[in-house]
């Protein structure tokens, strides 16, 4: 047993359970850049590991009722067959150039998602808090969801990246008023059959190292359960901040930034985000407190 792989699985599993993203976008670069696994073997091994790990996180969200099944179902209608086709294309006609282009585009998309997530958090802090017990019903758009599923499924089949990150970005844009817990639960639910389809393709056409799968699962299964428990109970703002950090790390790694440089940039960005969030939340809280104290005094003056 190589405990390095177990540790990598623990970190990745925790992030997947907590944010719904970070599986392929983090695990594949870790396997290839840090642990020396060949690219095709890394993609295949990552997908098979995810198939076994993600049901544990989905089960947690299922018990917490934080899955929007209609959204997940329509995504799967497009993504499942497209993922198998992508895996077949990847195994038979693998092209380092095409794979590199896809990763650059995906990395740029993730960095754009970081910007949109930060803007969304800022707007949430600026507006008055709504009743936390009331959540609007999400309108389902089957055509758009199926099309998104096809695109994401093919990319996942080719690169193993995107089953969580790309769909989470889409869900954030299409359903901004859904709580973070429901976004994560829905994302994980749709990702399970998608990843299973891609993994099946890689079992036939890829290069799965089952010894590595076993080592990764030792850490990833408990990590995914712990992360899912936290995501179904933690405040939405905490999850969104973590999601932004994970997406930033994933995007930078996909764009080819060195591991140490990525770590430094993410650490600095997380520190800046935490400081800005604290100052803005403090200002907003002070403004709300002042409003509560001034309104009664005006009422007494009128009397």
TrEMBL record:
Coiled coil: none annotated. InterPro entries: TM_pro_TauE-like, TSUP/Inactive_protease-like. The keyword Coiled coil does not apply. It is a multi-pass membrane protein. Keywords: Cell membrane, Membrane, Transmembrane, Transmembrane helix. The chain crosses the membrane at residues 40-59, 71-89, 101-123, 144-175, 210-231, 238-257, 263-280. It is found in: Cell membrane; Membrane. Pfam families: TauE (PF01925). Belongs to the 4-toluene sulfonate uptake permease (TSUP) (TC 2.A.102) family. This is Probable membrane transporter protein. The lineage of its organism: Bacteria, Bacillati, Actinomycetota, Actinomycetes, Mycobacteriales.
């Amino acid at each position: 047993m190589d405990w390095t792989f177990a540790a990598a699985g623990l970190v990745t599993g925790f992030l997947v359970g907590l944010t719904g993203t970070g599986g392929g976008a983090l695990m594949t670069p870790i396997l290839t850049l840090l642990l020396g696994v060949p690219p095709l073997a890394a993609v295949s091994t990552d997908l098979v590991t995810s198939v076994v790990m993600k049901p544990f996180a989905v089960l947690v969200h299922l018990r917490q009722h934080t899955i929007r099944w209609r959204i997940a179902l329509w995504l799967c209608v497009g993504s499942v067959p497209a993922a198998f086709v992508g895996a077949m294309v990847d195994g038979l006609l693998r092209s380092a150039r095409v794979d590199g282009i896809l990763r650059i585009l995906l990395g740029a998309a993730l960095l754009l998602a970081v910007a949109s997530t930060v803007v969304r958090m800022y707007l949430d802090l600026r507006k008055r808090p709504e009743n936390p017990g009331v959540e609007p019903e999400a309108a389902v758009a089957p055509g758009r969801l199926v099309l998104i599923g096809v695109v994401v499924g093919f990319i996942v089949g080719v690169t193993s990246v995107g089953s969580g990150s790309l769909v989470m970005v889409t869900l954030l844009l299409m359903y901004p008023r859904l709580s973070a817990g429901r976004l994560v639960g829905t994302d994980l639910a749709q990702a399970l059959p998608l990843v299973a389809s891609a993994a099946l393709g890689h079992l036939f056409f890829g290069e799965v190292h089952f010894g590595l799968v076993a080592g990764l699962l030792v850490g990833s299964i408990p990590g995914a359960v712990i992360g899912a428990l936290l995501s179904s109970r933690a405040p939405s703002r905490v999850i969104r901040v973590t999601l932004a950090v994970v997406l930033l790390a994933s995007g930078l790694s996909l764009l080819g930034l060195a591991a140490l440089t990525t770590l430094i940039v993410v650490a600095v960005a997380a520190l800046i985000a935490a400081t800005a969030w604290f100052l803005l939340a403090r200002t907003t809280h002070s403004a709300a407190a002042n409003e509560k104290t001034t309104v009664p005094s005006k009422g007494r003056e009128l009397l």
